[in-house]
Amino acid sequence: MLELEGALRSYAWGSRTAIAELQGRPVPSNHPEAELWLGAHPADPARVISAGVPESLLDVLGRDSARQLGQNNVGVFGERLPFLLKLLAAEEPLSLQAHPSAYQAAEGFRRENERGVPMDSPIRNYKDGSHKPELVVALSRFEALAGFREPTRTVGLLRALSTAELEPYVGLLDGQPDSGGLRALFTTWITLPSSVLATLLPAVLAGCIDYLSGGHTEFVPEVRTVLELSESYPGDAGVLAALLLNRVTLEPGQGLFLDAGNLHAYLNGLAVEIMANSDNVLRGGLTPKHVDVPELLRVLDFDGADITVLDPAPRPGSQIYEYRTPAPEFRLTRIEFDVGCGEAVVADQGPRIVMCTAGTVTATCGDDVLELGCGTAAWISAAEPSVRFTAQTVRAQVFLAAVSG
């Protein structure tokens, strides 16, 4: 077991306070801090600290993959860590995006390679041949858009805005309230000529303002979100697309699992995120970056339904909570410590990353002992035994990421 130093990523939508406060650093930070990567992604690997000397986790794995990852995992996933653990801090909305299935990723990666699209090209969609299922778990209240709403509810929302310019589009979905209608409406909106969008979008925003001032209650979060997105991304067709998606609020400890084809956007909050070790993103709006509409339509899942918030399953007789998903690349566990519950043993094997997100704990793994303060992490190889945590503060919280199995 070794101390693990994450790679801090700065994006415009990040927070100058959330990650810094969690780690006990001065605020505000010099730049927006959006993500802390704890993994072995080639774009920004974390560093293990041995005898005070930092070394890329990517290099550590490359030197002895069988010991670090376990022979079984190497056989299934190759000589790479199959998951990436993150802290994510969103002060502003992220782009509307979706991730491909395993087949779509492999095929898209092959296709772009054959076309000779450079890996660093701004029009490149597929940076690797892997899918990217992901799970986000809220540390603070966390707001998101995720998945297409059930179509008849969306018709109700659009009609509630009482906007004449919307009527042809409402009719499009009302006449076909299913995945085909959602595909048709989303495609129409995302490809609107700028001249049409310049008329339609202000009219929709005016309808949103009238809805809020009229004392209506049913769709208040959805309508407010559209107005907020229009301030961050004026004139962006993604603002219209947001009208079609479920508006989700996660309370601390709740999770949201996003599989292939799920159009989503994180809006605000601090969370732990775990995903397959991939960088494949198809954007759908709310961004100045490249939007490849045909490729996006190829991967999107247009089945409209309520989104399911994931509540973790407690292990009987313990303060250990498991977030169960179908992703083979990862499993996430949360351990809570409070008065009377100061110790826990997590028997997961294989390569593991642990991160303390509240208080201070002592982690013991074989002969290795590390004190983990809030915002710090450790790497545990597949060759090492179970890890025992002992709380050093009245309250503490730890997340443990491992390979599903």
Structural description of this entry:
By secondary structure, the protein is α+β, with helices and mostly antiparallel strands. The chain has three domains: 2-145 and 250-299, Jelly Rolls (Sandwich), CATH 2.60.120.10; 150-244; 313-402, Jelly Rolls (Sandwich). The chain has helices at 18-23, 57-63, 65-69, 71-77, 102-115, 151-160, 167-174, 179-190, 194-213, 220-232, 238-241, 293-299; strands at residues 2-5, 7-9, 35-38, 47-50, 53-56, 83-90, 96-98, 134-138, 142-148, 245-250, 255-258, 264-276, 282-285, 313-314, 320-323, 331-337, 343-346, 352-358, 361-365, 368-372, 377-380, 387-391, 396-402. Strand 15 (320-323) and strand 16 form a beta hairpin.
Category by helix and strand content: alpha+beta
CATH class of the largest domain: Mainly Beta
| Parts with pLDDT < 50 across at least 5 consecutive residues | none
Strand order of the largest sheet: 5-4-1-21-18-23-16-15-14
In whole angstroms, how far apart are the ends? 21 Å
Largest sheet: 9 strands, antiparallel
CATH topology of the largest domain: Jelly Rolls
